[in-house]
Amino acid sequence: MRRKLTPTLKKRHGVQPQSKSGSPEGRRANIAGAYTVLDPSVIKGKRIMIIDDIITTGSTLSECVKTLLLAGAEDVVCATLASTR
């Protein structure tokens, strides 16, 4: 089954890179509210997959998942290529 890749999230300007945010608490605070959904009608009721290069604390993925679910996604699954744990 072929799936369509659709840009769904936009990161607001002025968010410090996560690698410079320090502690896990600092990373969570830095990324809180950093994303908006481009078009909620595209994701409403859909299962979304996020693919990220590396997971360190999980703060970025958690924020993306929360944003997508609040905008109406049915489910969100995540895949990463590497982990620092």
The counted number of beta strands is: 4
The H-and-E topology, N to C, reads as EHEHEHE
| Helix proportion | 25-40%
Strand order of the largest sheet: 1-2
DSSP summary: helix tally: 3
Radius of gyration: 13 Å
Structure, explained:
The structure is a single chain. Helix content is 28%, strand content 28%. It is an alpha+beta fold and 85 residues long. It has a two-stranded antiparallel ribbon with strand order 1-2. β3 (47-55), α3 (59-70) and β4 (75-83) form a beta-alpha-beta unit. The longest helix has 12 residues, at 59-70.
Please write out the topology.
Layout: E1 9-11, H1 24-31, E2 35-37, H2 40-43, E3 47-55, H3 59-70, E4 75-83
Parallel strand pairs: 3-4
Antiparallel strand pairs: 1-2
Give descriptors for this structure.
single chain; 85 residues; alpha+beta; two-stranded antiparallel sheet; two-stranded parallel ribbon; 3 helices
Summarize the structure in short.
The chain has 85 residues and is α+β, with helices and mostly antiparallel strands. It is built from 3 helices and 4 strands, in the order βαβαβαβ.
